């Protein structure tokens, strides 16, 4: 090879041209596309399975060929097309030659299959199409049209049949384009049947995955059924000679990953009718393909050098255990690839490229790092040595020519980290950089076996004779230098160097997997998740009305089934829907009263760019959130976070372009009317459009100039101010400014809401609440409330529902303001509108009641009681004069509510004793029961009370007998008086009973008499009951009634107001008993005071005889006598104890004997009291 002017290696070896092309089944056909095609293992196997299918009867002739991008599926489709052409076709002859050479047995099987279907001479009607993202039926129609057009026949009848098929196809396609009407399965079957009568039909669809993706998006049952029917048609030779071949990148079930369980089951039924044929070559087949990719010149010198190079290379490969490339013929055929590059390429192309497409680009492309470029630029050396394309150049090719590698390739995070470290490191020599690239690429394809970045493998791969890497030793030196610098790491346990530290994460796979999972999720749902829209303010309207109007915003598309509307509890004043599809539902939630908050619809001509961008963002977010491999790999995570941010920015830019402020001409703003019609909004989009909508929807809203109250959620200070304002409204309504002083927030609320609107104003010389003037903006709200009150005559209205109506169009009152307006209207109409809590009528409007109302308005109801006529009017006019004073919160007398409120309040204020006692007349008992159990004011007054008095009900119309009316009024007046006087009578009875027990007949002198007498015994009584009585009798209490209550409490331990009838009886008995004890102690104390002798103890001895008579005497015992007689008593007790057994029995028996001895008939004595003064005094009572 020694020459004066060395030639380039391209003179001796070059790649075959065919490998520089990509194939399209509709465009590329014929012998030129197959001139250099080499059927490899997977293609031969697929043809063999096709031949077996064609030769079988009564089985589905449906093949599903699945292989990754760039694996040669389209080229295989061209081969199948050629093999099934007529016998005289040039492409058929080329294809037969290729197959018979590569696999004679398979060729024979295919020839037999053609004969079996009577297609050896005529060939098939070859209906080929490359699918797009479209329904299956569209692709099938295009394929049938192509097949009918290209089939060659000299038979006139067949030509007419083919032309009719084409005409039918054109008609169906026109119907689809104009009317959107898809052909039926029956129509497709008729077309295929007519073609199959001419010749067997080959229906081959390349890129079938796009059809499947379109189905996954649309869920078209028609598509699913057509696929199933196509497969079934192919099994019956008698009816239809059909074979179906689909080609896609993924298996059927992977396209259905996002479908529901039921849809996946239906999908599985269809997939089961197709025979799955994997179209993936092994690494050995790929290396054989590389060997066939080169053509060599006939040069003995070059051939000799090549043999020596391959021999040495194989020896080294065997020494390193790399048996896959220990084949001299293979290594020689694949030069100029270094054996390690040859070993790595299949894995690199599969994991980081597009299989054969990437491989052929590297071998034959024009890239600066391709093999073809190296052959053209590298000169033959003078010493007959052969350089080669080493691993570092392979690395450069994949980096430089794969701009999207990081975002699309399997294992992208690993590649990104290695490339980042190599690219960003500073200060490396060229030799170090070549070695570092070698280590990096070996890291990428390392399988943990012999092909790894070990020292020996790196030295073989990188020792290229260049400066710094001339020999193994120099390569090892470069490794030591980079290890010392921290660029690479030596892993002892794995016997390899590492540039990469992360895990092997397939970013493209992770994103694709997430995208397939999200395919069933609508774009609107995705955007709600990743880009929820903040509320939009109707700025101009808000400024003019004083109420901040905000509209929530949401995304919708064709999959949105129903449009929601903000409810009564929702603070939003309306909703804006941004529509992403041309067709969408206008089915919407309708309120029962028709007062729906406004709905604005924004449409665009084309929302697909937004949908695509949203899916991309959502898929990346899903991968970041759910893929555990990404979570654990910081490189992959960082890369995906960056990509997610970029995708989000792209989405935002697309949203701004489509819906932004400067995109008014691209979007159309419309109002959804009550009848679901869309009306254009005569205002530019955005806030201006919403102000126009708010003007229409809330045209009856009052102008409110108080931001503290005019909001949905009040601050703590605002809530307190409102509470104080409402309290003033209830208790000081007749005062100017409601009696509010100063300039606090409650005063600001009062002036802005009640005073400026003249709802609270001076009327006929008195301040009060009433309707605002007609020219104020509060007029419509007030009229609505009055009408609502009037509508509550038959059924009660829940206050919470009424407030919700105030918050809906056309008023739009805020939750903070509505209670204030409601309270004012209720007070103004208090004589006719009743308030209920938990179904119970509340006669008085109190601050405490309204505090509960503010917290839980849904627990309160109102009901209207209108003006009465006839007999009921007469009863009201007379009854109101019989009842006590005015009622709190009521404006006028003479109404049902005024009368009933007074009745209910008068009974509710009675003590519990009066509410429970039976010591009343039947009439009072009946009236009391009717009032206490009443729930409806008019029913109480006109039915229940007359019934309690034994009278007929008062009719709503007509007359009521005069005697009945008089009896009703008299009975009611008597019952109320009796109930009112019942408790004072109890207190009077307490004084009377006490006077009788203590011997004071004059009731008027009881308190003064017994208090003076009790004072004489104060501090001298041990008995607790008597001591409590004395405490009560001497208590300094101003009111006689309160003094009587205190006495009753001390005697019974129960307040008289809460007495039962039994408690009252107990008082009578205990007062009598305590009175007797009191009088005895009083007498004893008197005698003691009469005989003041320090040497004596006084004992009062009382003996009760069997006939009930008692005798009492005071015994004075001198101290000396007691000492002398004490021994006698002790002896007597001991003697008696010997008889009785116990000291207690002995003492009691002695007392009994003494009583019997001293007084005939006396049997028992008992000490009852004692009192001592100085040496002491006491009283002992003995009774039988």
TrEMBL record:
Residues 1161-1184 are annotated as: Disordered. This is ATP-binding protein. It comes from the Bacteria.
């Amino acid at each position: 090879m020694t020459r004066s002017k060395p030639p380039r290696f391209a003179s001796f070896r070059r790649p075959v041209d065919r490998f520089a092309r990509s194939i399209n089944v509709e465009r590329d056909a014929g012998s030129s596309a197959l001139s250099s095609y080499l059927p490899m293992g997977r293609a031969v196997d697929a043809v063999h399975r096709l031949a077996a299918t064609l030769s079988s009867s009564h089985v589905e002739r449906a093949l599903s060929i699945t292989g990754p991008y760039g694996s040669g599926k389209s080229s295989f489709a061209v081969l199948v097309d050629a093999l099934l052409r007529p016998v005289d076709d040039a492409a058929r002859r080329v294809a037969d030659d290729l197959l018979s050479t590569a696999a004679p047995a398979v060729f024979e099987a295919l020839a037999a299959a053609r004969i079996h279907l009577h297609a050896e001479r005529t060939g098939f009607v070859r209906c080929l199409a490359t699918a797009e993202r479209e329904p299956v039926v569209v692709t099938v129609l295009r394929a049938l049209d192509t097949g009918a057009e290209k089939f060659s026949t000299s038979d006139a009848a067949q030509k007419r049949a083919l032309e009719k098929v084409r005409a039918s196809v054109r008609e169906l396609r026109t119907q689809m384009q104009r009317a959107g009407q898809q052909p039926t399965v029956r129509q497709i079957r008729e077309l295929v049947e007519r073609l199959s009568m001419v010749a067997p039909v080959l229906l081959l669809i390349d890129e079938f995955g796009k059809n499947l993706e379109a189905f996954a998006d649309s869920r078209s049952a028609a598509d699913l059924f057509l696929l199933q029917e196509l497969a079934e048609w192919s099994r019956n030779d008698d009816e239809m000679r059909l074979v179906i071949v689909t080609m896609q990148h993924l298996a059927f079930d992977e396209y259905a990953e996002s479908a529901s369980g039921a849809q996946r089951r239906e999908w599985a039924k269809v997939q089961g009718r197709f025979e799955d044929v994997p179209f993936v070559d092994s690494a050995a087949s790929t290396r054989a393909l590389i060997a066939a990719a080169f053509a060599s010149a006939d040069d003995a010198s070059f051939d000799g050098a090549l043999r020596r190079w391959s021999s040495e290379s194989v020896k080294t490969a065997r020494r390193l255990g790399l048996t896959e490339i220990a084949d001299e013929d293979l290594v020689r055929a694949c030069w100029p690839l270094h054996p390690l590059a040859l070993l790595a390429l299949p894995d690199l192309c599969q994991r980081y490229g597009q299989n054969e497409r990437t491989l052929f680009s590297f071998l034959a492309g024009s890239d600066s790092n391709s093999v073809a470029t190296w052959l053209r630029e590298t000169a033959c050396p003078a010493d007959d040595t052969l350089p080669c394309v080493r691993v570092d150049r392979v690395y450069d090719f994949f980096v430089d020519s794969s701009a999207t590698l990081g975002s699309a390739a399997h294992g992208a995070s690993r590649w990104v980290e290695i490339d980042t470290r190599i690219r960003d490191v500073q200060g490396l020599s060229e030799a170090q950089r070549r070695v570092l690239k070698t280590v990096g690429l070996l890291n990428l394809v390392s399988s943990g076996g012999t092909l790894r970045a070990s020292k020996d493998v790196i030295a073989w791969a990188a020792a290229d004779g260049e400066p710094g890497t001339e020999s193994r030793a120099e390569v090892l030196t470069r490794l030591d230098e980079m290890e010392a610098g921290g660029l690479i790491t030596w892993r002892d346990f794995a016997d390899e160097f590492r540039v990469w530290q992360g895990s092997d994460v397939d970013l493209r796979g992770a994103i694709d997997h997430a995208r397939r999972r999200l395919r069933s999720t609508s774009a609107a749902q995705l955007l709600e998740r990743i880009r929820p829209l903040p509320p939009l303010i109707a700025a101009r309207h808000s400024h003019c009305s004083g109420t901040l109007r905000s509209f929530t915003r949401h995304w919708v598309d064709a999959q949105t089934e129903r449009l929601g509307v903000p409810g009564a509890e929702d603070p939003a004043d309306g909703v804006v829907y941004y529509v992403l599809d041309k067709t969408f539902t206008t089915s919407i939630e309708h309120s029962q009263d028709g007062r729906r908050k406004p709905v604005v619809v924004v449409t665009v001509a084309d929302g697909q760019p937004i949908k695509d961008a949203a899916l991309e963002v959502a898929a990346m977010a899903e991968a970041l959130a759910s893929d555990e491999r990404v979570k654990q790999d910081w490189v992959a995570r960082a890369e995906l976070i960056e990509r997610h941010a970029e995708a989000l920015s792209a989405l935002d830019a697309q949203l701004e372009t489509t819906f932004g402020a400067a995109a008014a001409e691209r979007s159309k703003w419309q109002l959804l009317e009550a009848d679901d019609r869309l009306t254009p909004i005569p205002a530019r989009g955005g806030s201006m459009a919403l102000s126009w909508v708010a003007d229409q929807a809330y045209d009856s809203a009052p102008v409110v100039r108080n931001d503290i109250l005019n909001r949905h959620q009040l601050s703590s200070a605002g809530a307190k101010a409102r509470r104080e304002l409402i309290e003033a409204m209830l208790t000081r309504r007749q005062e100017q400014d409601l009696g509010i002083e100063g300039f606090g927030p409650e005063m600001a609320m009062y002036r802005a809401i009640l005073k400026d609107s003249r709802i609270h104003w001076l009327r006929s010389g008195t301040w009060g609440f009433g309707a605002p003037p007609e020219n104020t903006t509060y007029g419509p709200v007030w009229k609505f409330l009055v009408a609502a009150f009037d509508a509550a005559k038959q059924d009660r209205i829940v206050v919470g529902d009424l407030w919700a109506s105030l918050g809906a169009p056309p008023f739009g009152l805020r939750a903070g303001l509505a209670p204030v307006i409601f309270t004012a209207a209720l007070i103004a109409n208090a004589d006719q509108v009743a308030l209920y809590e938990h179904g119970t009528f509340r006669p008085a409007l109190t601050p405490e009641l309204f505090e509960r109302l503010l917290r839980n308005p849904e627990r309160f109801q109102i009901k209207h009681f209108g003006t009465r006529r006839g007999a009921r009017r007469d009863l009201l006019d007379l009854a109101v004069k019989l009842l006590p004073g005015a009622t709190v919160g009521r404006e006028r007398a003479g109404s049902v509510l005024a009368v009933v409120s007074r009745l209910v309040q008068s009974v509710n204020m009675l003590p519990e004793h009066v509410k429970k006692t039976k010591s009343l007349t039947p009439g009072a008992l009946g009236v009391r029961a009717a009032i206490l159990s009443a729930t409806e004011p008019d029913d109480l007054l006109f039915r229940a009370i007359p019934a309690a008095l034994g009278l007929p009900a008062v009719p709503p119309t007509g007359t009521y007998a005069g005697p009945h009316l008089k009896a009703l009024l008299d009975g009611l007046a008597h019952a109320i008086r009796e109930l009112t006087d019942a408790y004072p009578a109890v207190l009077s009875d307490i004084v009377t009973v006490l006077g009788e027990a203590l011997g004071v007949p004059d009731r008027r002198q009881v308190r003064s008499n017994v208090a003076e007498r009790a004072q004489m015994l104060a501090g001298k009584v041990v008995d607790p009951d008597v001591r409590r009585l004395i405490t009560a009798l001497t208590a300094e209490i101003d009111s006689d009634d309160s003094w009587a209550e205190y006495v009753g409490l001390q005697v019974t331990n129960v307040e008289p107001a809460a007495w039962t009838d039994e408690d009252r009886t107990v008082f009578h008995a205990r007062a009598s008993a305590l009175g007797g004890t009191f009088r005895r102690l009083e007498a004893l104390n008197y005698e003691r005071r009469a005989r003041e002798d320090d040497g004596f103890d006084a004992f009062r001895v009382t003996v009760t005889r069997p006939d009930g008579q008692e005798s009492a005497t005071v015994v004075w015992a001198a101290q000396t006598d007691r000492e002398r007689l004490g021994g006698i008593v002790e002896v007597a007790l001991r003697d008696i104890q010997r008889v009785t057994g116990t000291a207690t029995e002995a003492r009691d028996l002695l007392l009994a004997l003494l009583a019997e001895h001293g007084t005939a008939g006396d049997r028992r004595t008992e000490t009852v009291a004692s009192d001592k003064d100085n040496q002491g005094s006491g009283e002992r009572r003995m009774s039988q």
